[in-house]
Amino acid sequence: MIGKIGGILAGVLAVPLAVALGLIASQRPAEMAGDDEAFFADRYEPVMSRYNDRGRYRLVEGVSHLGIVDAPETRQAIAELLDEL
């Protein structure tokens, strides 16, 4: 699974897979997803946390892939993240 996700990320960024995984491992990822019709949002944390245990992941029920962008829960999560900086 990570090969597929990393491969997609590498393809989007036009970098080798090892570089894409290194980027994931070096950051503090934050991911929010809802009832996502574009990918398996509930599988993101288990896969990504194997490479970086500093991530923050939230699933928001009843919010679509595009709806997560302006959902109130997203604004709240961003505010919390910024408060920690």
Secondary structure tally, helices: 4
Helix content: 40-55%
Distance between the termini: 32 Å
What is the overall pLDDT average? 74
How many domains would you count in the coordinates? 1
Round the Cα radius of gyration to an integer and report it. 13 Å
Structural class, from secondary structure content?
A: mainly alpha
Total number of strands:
2
Record the strand order, biggest sheet. Answer: 1-2
Q: Mind describing the biggest β-sheet?
A: 2 strands, parallel
General shape? globular
Low-confidence sequence ranges: none
Please state roughly what percent of the residues sit in beta strands, choosing from under 5%, 5-15%, 15-25%, 25-35%, 35-45% or over 45%: 5-15%
Order of SSEs: HHEHEH
Key terms for this structure?
51% helix, globular, two-stranded parallel sheet, 85 residues, mainly alpha, 2 strands
Task: Describe the structure in your own words.
It is a single chain. The chain is mainly alpha-helical and 85 residues long. Helix content is 51%, strand content 9%. It has one domain (2-84). It has helices at 2-13, 17-26, 41-48, 72-84; strands at residues 30-33, 56-59. The protein is globular and about 35 Å long. The termini are far apart. 13% of the residues are buried.
